[in-house]
Amino acid sequence: MARDYYETLGVSRNATQEEIKRAYRRLARKYHPDVNQEVSAADRFKEINEAHEVLSEPDKRSRYDRFGEAGVSGAGAGGFQDFGDMGGFADIFESFFSGFAGGGGGTTTRRRSGPTRGEDLRYDLKLEFREAIFGGEKQIRISHLETCDTCKGSGAKPGTKPRTCTTCGGSGQVRRATRTPFGSFTQVSTCPTCTGTGQMIEDKCETCGGVGLKQVTKKLKITIPKGVDSGTRLRVSGEGDAGQKGGPHGDLYVYLFVQADQEFEREGINILSTVRVSYLQAILGDKIIINTVDGEKPLTIPAGTQPGTVLTLEGLGVPKLGNPVARGDHLVTVKIEIPTKVSGEEREVLEKLLEKHRKGAAKGGIEGFLGGIFHR
Question: Is residue 176 over pLDDT 70?
């Protein structure tokens, strides 16, 4: 069944990149296997990652919008082939029958005997809330393929060499005649003996078993930029698997997942938190100390502050990714604590104030404010 990536992330088809990013962060926190232990969570998390990987890249998203899932799931590293660029029916026909040659005609021999690029690897890295904000270095351990030191990637025992494949004669391909309603064709396929390399290894390297590669675990230091968030992908060039026959390494892609914080939340480049003050502080105003990601900072509570008021500490938010000099703000939502009981002295004072304003001494002043608080 075809999957709808927009439906997976719960966004509309005209959603902005920021909306897609927010939806991904929300779902990633909910279904990450480290947070959600349900069996179905892992599959759901995989679907969410796949959807985000396509919709977060404009080129892939454009192909997906035009062709659906087929537009981004093409065979091999070549990706999806747009038939609109193939140049007509003749070229389409040729592409379908590229493995066949007419009765007496020849074929183009394609061998894979040369060096090939290694596979890219993925690593999921969890970060603490403050690590994502201020960045730094993280050490990770990865397991990847490296060229065998013993045979230098040839796969042959030192002192020996691969020889020409006896099945395909070194071409890397085998041919088989096939009769079809269109005539007689010769089907060309990869040689099963040498898997297309055109060479056979009789005396295999004892270290790598003839593969030419060996599995190695190594430590890497990853530099985390300031302001990253869940879904950020870092590319570490050349740390993927080594290529066959001395081919270049692939790359390592590090996907970041930021753990939730008990005190702070994040919204884009702003940090959100709440602070509780007494009704007296709200009425009269006060100067208090609150926690921020930069440590303790003073916060002024203006006189007459209402419940739900949002106060701003400028420049104490998240550094902008790619421009760490620019930072968001810390937004503090004020919650006012209304006591269920007051002392005799407090009650006496409050009753005198209330009586005074009932008599019209200060119409519309503190009576309205107190009445509004106590009746919320």
Answer: yes
The span from the CA of 310 to the CA of 292, in Å, is 15
Within the chain, all domains assigned CATH 2.60.260.20 are found at: 261-337
- In angstroms, the CA 259 to CA 230 distance is 8
Better-predicted residue by pLDDT, 266 or 198:
266
Q: What pLDDT, in 10s, does the model give residues 81-117?
A: 333 343 443 333 333 444 444 444 444 444 455 688 8
N-term to C-term CA, the chain: 52
Phi first, then psi, for residue 119 (nearest 5°) are -75, 150
- Region(s) of the chain under CATH 1.10.287.110: 1-74
**C-alpha dihedral sign at 50, 51, 56, 61:** positive
What's the confidence (pLDDT) of residue 115?
80
Asked whether the predicted pLDDT for residue 80 surpasses 50, the reply is no
The answer to whether residues 153 and 244 touch, using CB atoms and an 8 Å cutoff, is yes
Q: Which two tokens stand for residue 135?
A: 């960045």
Strands (E), the chain: 100-102, 121-127, 136-147, 163-164, 173-180, 183-190, 199-200, 213-224, 233-236, 252-258, 265-267, 270-278, 286-292, 295-301, 310-313, 319-320, 323-327, 330-337
pTM: 0.59
CA distance 77 to 119: 10
Asked if 328 and 318 touch (Cβ cutoff 8 Å), the reply is: yes
Q: Top-level CATH class of 1-74?
A: mainly alpha
| Tokens 């003996």 -> residue | 193
Ranges 69-73, 103-107, 301-305: which has the least confidence: 103-107
Contact between residue 255 and residue 268 where contact means Cβ atoms under 8 Å apart: no
- The domain 261-337 is placed in CATH, from the list 2.60.260.20, 3.40.190.10, 3.40.190.150, 3.40.980.10, at 2.60.260.20
